[in-house]
Amino acid sequence: MSKQKIIISIKILNKVNTVIKLINPNSDIKTNKLNLNNHISFQTVAFKQIIQNLLSNAIKYNDKEITEITITYNETLQ
Asked: Is the pTM of this model over 0.85?
C-alpha cells in the first residue's frame, strides 16, 4: 500500500519559525527572514525536513564566531 503524498498550501514564515524553534540555535546565531510572508504548495513534512536540514548544516559547517543565516523566498523562481 503506497502512502499518498498530500500537497497543501503552507505559509512559509510559519514553517520556518517552527523549525527554528525546534533547532533552538544559540544566541550567537542570527537568522534573517526576508519575504517569507508567502504561501507555497508543498508537502508540509517534506518542507519542514528540508528547512531543518539546510539550517542544521548551515550551523554545523560554519566556522565563524557569529553565524548569520538569511532565509529568503524568491517568487520569480517558483
From this structure: no
